[in-house]
Amino acid sequence: MPSTIYYIRHGQTGWNVEGRFQGSKDIPLNEFGRSQAAASGEILGRLLAQDGRLASALPFVSSPLGRARTTMELVRGALKLPVTGYAVDNRLREIGFGHWEGLTVTEMQANDAVTFASRAVNKWSVAAPAGESYASVTLRIRAWLNSVTTDTVAVAHGGTMRALMVALGIATELEAIEIPIGQGVVYVFRDGGLQKYS
Predict the structure, then answer these.
(1) Interacting residues of 148 by C-beta distance below 8 A, sequence separation 6+
(2) For residue 113, how many other CB atoms are within 10 A of its CB?
(3) 69-110 pLDDT, tens digit each
Protein backbone atom coordinates (compact mmCIF):
# COMPACT_ATOMS: atom_id res chain seq x y z
CA MET A 1 0.00 0.00 0.00
CA PRO A 2 1.49 3.37 -1.01
CA SER A 3 1.77 6.11 1.58
CA THR A 4 -0.14 8.61 -0.58
CA ILE A 5 -2.96 8.45 -3.14
CA TYR A 6 -3.94 11.73 -4.80
CA TYR A 7 -7.55 11.05 -5.81
CA ILE A 8 -9.67 13.14 -8.18
CA ARG A 9 -13.30 12.55 -9.07
CA HIS A 10 -14.20 13.32 -12.69
CA GLY A 11 -15.67 16.73 -13.51
CA GLN A 12 -19.35 17.49 -13.87
CA THR A 13 -21.50 15.96 -16.62
CA GLY A 14 -24.97 16.83 -17.86
CA TRP A 15 -26.34 13.83 -16.00
CA ASN A 16 -24.78 15.08 -12.76
CA VAL A 17 -26.72 18.31 -13.24
CA GLU A 18 -29.95 16.41 -13.91
CA GLY A 19 -29.45 14.05 -10.94
CA ARG A 20 -29.23 10.98 -13.19
CA PHE A 21 -27.22 7.96 -12.05
CA GLN A 22 -24.44 7.33 -14.58
CA GLY A 23 -22.76 4.12 -13.49
CA SER A 24 -21.17 2.47 -16.52
CA LYS A 25 -22.75 4.86 -19.04
CA ASP A 26 -20.12 6.92 -20.85
CA ILE A 27 -21.46 10.43 -20.30
CA PRO A 28 -19.05 13.24 -21.34
CA LEU A 29 -17.99 16.18 -19.23
CA ASN A 30 -19.87 19.42 -19.76
CA GLU A 31 -17.97 22.71 -20.07
CA PHE A 32 -18.12 23.35 -16.33
CA GLY A 33 -16.82 19.83 -15.75
CA ARG A 34 -13.88 20.52 -18.04
CA SER A 35 -13.04 23.65 -16.05
CA GLN A 36 -13.31 21.63 -12.81
CA ALA A 37 -10.88 19.06 -14.20
CA ALA A 38 -8.35 21.72 -15.12
CA ALA A 39 -8.77 23.28 -11.67
CA SER A 40 -8.07 19.90 -10.08
CA GLY A 41 -4.84 19.75 -12.04
CA GLU A 42 -3.79 23.15 -10.74
CA ILE A 43 -4.60 22.13 -7.16
CA LEU A 44 -2.66 18.90 -7.61
CA GLY A 45 0.32 20.85 -8.92
CA ARG A 46 0.38 22.98 -5.76
CA LEU A 47 0.05 19.92 -3.52
CA LEU A 48 2.87 18.10 -5.27
CA ALA A 49 5.09 21.17 -4.96
CA GLN A 50 4.33 21.34 -1.23
CA ASP A 51 5.16 17.64 -0.91
CA GLY A 52 8.40 18.10 -2.83
CA ARG A 53 7.22 15.72 -5.56
CA LEU A 54 7.68 15.91 -9.31
CA ALA A 55 4.47 15.15 -11.19
CA SER A 56 6.48 13.46 -13.93
CA ALA A 57 7.86 10.96 -11.40
CA LEU A 58 4.46 9.67 -10.25
CA PRO A 59 2.25 7.06 -11.91
CA PHE A 60 -1.18 8.29 -13.04
CA VAL A 61 -4.10 5.87 -13.41
CA SER A 62 -7.68 6.40 -14.56
CA SER A 63 -11.01 4.63 -14.71
CA PRO A 64 -11.69 3.51 -18.28
CA LEU A 65 -14.84 5.66 -18.56
CA GLY A 66 -14.60 8.69 -20.82
CA ARG A 67 -15.53 11.26 -18.19
CA ALA A 68 -12.64 10.08 -16.01
CA ARG A 69 -10.17 9.85 -18.89
CA THR A 70 -11.03 13.36 -20.11
CA THR A 71 -10.59 14.63 -16.56
CA MET A 72 -7.23 12.87 -16.34
CA GLU A 73 -6.06 14.41 -19.61
CA LEU A 74 -7.10 17.90 -18.50
CA VAL A 75 -5.36 17.35 -15.14
CA ARG A 76 -2.17 16.27 -16.90
CA GLY A 77 -2.44 19.21 -19.28
CA ALA A 78 -2.62 21.60 -16.31
CA LEU A 79 0.55 19.93 -14.98
CA LYS A 80 2.29 20.39 -18.37
CA LEU A 81 2.55 16.61 -18.78
CA PRO A 82 1.82 14.62 -21.96
CA VAL A 83 -1.92 14.03 -21.88
CA THR A 84 -1.65 10.36 -22.86
CA GLY A 85 0.98 9.33 -20.29
CA TYR A 86 -1.28 7.43 -17.90
CA ALA A 87 -2.59 3.93 -17.27
CA VAL A 88 -6.20 2.76 -17.33
CA ASP A 89 -7.49 0.25 -14.78
CA ASN A 90 -10.96 -1.30 -15.13
CA ARG A 91 -11.14 -1.85 -11.37
CA LEU A 92 -11.55 1.94 -10.97
CA ARG A 93 -14.74 2.07 -13.07
CA GLU A 94 -17.84 3.49 -11.42
CA ILE A 95 -20.32 1.29 -9.57
CA GLY A 96 -22.73 -0.22 -12.09
CA PHE A 97 -26.34 0.80 -11.56
CA GLY A 98 -27.72 -1.71 -14.07
CA HIS A 99 -31.30 -0.97 -15.12
CA TRP A 100 -31.28 2.25 -13.09
CA GLU A 101 -28.58 3.94 -15.15
CA GLY A 102 -29.91 7.15 -16.64
CA LEU A 103 -32.68 7.42 -14.05
CA THR A 104 -33.22 9.95 -11.28
CA VAL A 105 -33.99 8.80 -7.74
CA THR A 106 -37.71 9.43 -8.33
CA GLU A 107 -37.61 7.39 -11.55
CA MET A 108 -35.72 4.57 -9.80
CA GLN A 109 -38.45 4.31 -7.19
CA ALA A 110 -41.15 4.25 -9.86
CA ASN A 111 -39.18 1.69 -11.90
CA ASP A 112 -38.71 -0.86 -9.09
CA ALA A 113 -40.24 0.16 -5.77
CA VAL A 114 -39.37 -3.13 -4.02
CA THR A 115 -35.63 -3.03 -4.76
CA PHE A 116 -35.57 0.71 -4.16
CA ALA A 117 -37.04 0.20 -0.67
CA SER A 118 -34.54 -2.59 0.12
CA ARG A 119 -31.66 -0.46 -1.04
CA ALA A 120 -32.89 2.50 1.01
CA VAL A 121 -32.43 0.33 4.10
CA ASN A 122 -29.03 -1.06 3.05
CA LYS A 123 -27.42 1.02 0.29
CA TRP A 124 -24.06 -0.69 0.76
CA SER A 125 -25.05 -4.28 0.14
CA VAL A 126 -28.17 -4.10 -2.05
CA ALA A 127 -27.49 -3.68 -5.78
CA ALA A 128 -29.67 -2.01 -8.38
CA PRO A 129 -31.34 -4.52 -10.74
CA ALA A 130 -28.56 -6.02 -12.92
CA GLY A 131 -26.10 -3.69 -11.15
CA GLU A 132 -23.41 -3.85 -8.50
CA SER A 133 -23.44 -3.27 -4.77
CA TYR A 134 -20.95 -1.00 -3.04
CA ALA A 135 -19.77 -4.13 -1.21
CA SER A 136 -18.74 -5.74 -4.51
CA VAL A 137 -17.08 -2.52 -5.70
CA THR A 138 -15.04 -2.53 -2.49
CA LEU A 139 -13.67 -5.97 -3.39
CA ARG A 140 -12.29 -4.72 -6.71
CA ILE A 141 -10.97 -1.54 -5.11
CA ARG A 142 -9.12 -3.65 -2.53
CA ALA A 143 -7.64 -5.68 -5.39
CA TRP A 144 -6.54 -2.45 -7.06
CA LEU A 145 -5.01 -1.19 -3.80
CA ASN A 146 -3.02 -4.42 -3.47
CA SER A 147 -1.51 -3.77 -6.89
CA VAL A 148 -0.43 -0.20 -6.11
CA THR A 149 3.17 -0.12 -4.93
CA THR A 150 4.04 3.58 -4.96
CA ASP A 151 2.43 6.98 -4.42
CA THR A 152 -0.14 7.40 -7.17
CA VAL A 153 -2.51 9.89 -8.80
CA ALA A 154 -5.91 8.31 -9.52
CA VAL A 155 -8.89 9.77 -11.41
CA ALA A 156 -12.16 7.92 -11.00
CA HIS A 157 -15.64 8.32 -9.52
CA GLY A 158 -17.69 9.06 -6.43
CA GLY A 159 -18.71 5.45 -5.95
CA THR A 160 -15.18 4.12 -6.18
CA MET A 161 -14.02 6.74 -3.70
CA ARG A 162 -16.65 5.58 -1.20
CA ALA A 163 -15.33 2.04 -1.62
CA LEU A 164 -11.74 3.27 -1.23
CA MET A 165 -12.59 5.01 2.06
CA VAL A 166 -14.04 1.75 3.40
CA ALA A 167 -11.19 -0.36 2.04
CA LEU A 168 -8.67 1.87 3.82
CA GLY A 169 -10.66 1.95 7.07
CA ILE A 170 -11.16 5.73 6.86
CA ALA A 171 -14.96 5.52 6.98
CA THR A 172 -17.56 2.94 7.90
CA GLU A 173 -20.00 1.74 5.28
CA LEU A 174 -22.74 3.90 6.77
CA GLU A 175 -20.47 6.95 6.82
CA ALA A 176 -19.08 6.44 3.32
CA ILE A 177 -22.51 6.17 1.72
CA GLU A 178 -23.49 9.64 2.99
CA ILE A 179 -20.27 11.60 2.42
CA PRO A 180 -20.56 14.00 -0.54
CA ILE A 181 -17.73 13.51 -3.05
CA GLY A 182 -16.71 16.80 -4.63
CA GLN A 183 -15.69 17.66 -8.17
CA GLY A 184 -12.97 20.16 -9.01
CA VAL A 185 -11.04 19.20 -5.86
CA VAL A 186 -8.23 16.82 -4.88
CA TYR A 187 -8.48 14.26 -2.08
CA VAL A 188 -5.28 13.03 -0.46
CA PHE A 189 -5.26 9.63 1.24
CA ARG A 190 -2.18 9.53 3.46
CA ASP A 191 -1.13 7.79 6.69
CA GLY A 192 -4.58 6.45 7.41
CA GLY A 193 -6.30 9.80 6.92
CA LEU A 194 -8.05 11.80 4.23
CA GLN A 195 -7.80 15.51 3.37
CA LYS A 196 -9.74 17.50 0.78
CA TYR A 197 -8.11 20.38 -1.11
CA SER A 198 -9.89 22.98 -3.22
Answers:
(1) 1, 2, 5
(2) 10
(3) 999 999 999 999 999 999 999 999 999 999 999 999 999 999
6-47, pLDDT tens digit by residue?
999 999 999 999 999 999 999 999 999 999 999 999 999 999
Q: How many folded domains does the chain comprise?
A: 1
Query: Does the reported pTM lie above 0.90?
Result: yes
How many whole angstroms from its chain centre is CA 69? 11
* Amino acid, res. 131: G
**Which residues constitute the domain of residue 146?**
4-197
Q: What is the CATH number of the domain that holds 98?
A: 3.40.50.1240
